[in-house]
Amino acid sequence: MEIKHRMIVFDAADIDAECAFWAGFLDGTVEKWGDRWRTIWVDGGYALGVQSAPNHVPPDWPDGEPQQIHLDLYFEGIEAHDAAHERVISLGARLLKASDDRTAARGIQIYADPAGHPFCLCWIPAAN
Questions:
Q1: 78-90 and 15-26 helices cross at what angle (nearest 10)?
Q2: Which of 2, 6, 12, 75 has the fewest C-beta atoms lying within 10 Å of its C-beta?
Q3: How far is CA 34 from CA 10, 31, 39, 54, in A?
């Protein structure tokens, strides 16, 4: 069996806001596939799908109800992380949990996209 495409799909009550956020952050484009579905393309390939879910209830994570799914996005160095932080906030993300130690070589901060899906922006040491 050969799988042709792999895609993470987010449910969202407002699929246009969800798509605008992820396409904006990933430098992608949005393609509308009917009234209930959007695909976000990055570098000529599928990146994410967004499906209409009018009754979607965001998870209360990391301290409440269990998460449904989340993405970890890694950046080399705290400066690159900070630029990503500014970008996601400007696109409508909310910071859920800040790092306890921003001076550490590795770290993580937890965010929610406009539909409430959690994701993490992580920093690691720059490759030499």
A1: 150
A2: 2
A3: 16, 9, 10, 15
Q: Where are the domains of the chain?
A: 8-52, 71-124
Of 128, 3, 111, the closest CA to residue 120 belongs to: 111
Fold topology of 71-124: 2,3-Dihydroxybiphenyl 1,2-Dioxygenase; domain 1 (3.10.180)
Altogether, the residues listed in the chain come to a count of 128
AA letter at 95: L
Task: Output the CATH code of domain 8-52.
Answer: 3.30.720
pTM score of the predicted model: 0.74
Two tokens, residue 90: 């400007």
**Which pLDDT value is given to residue 8?**
85
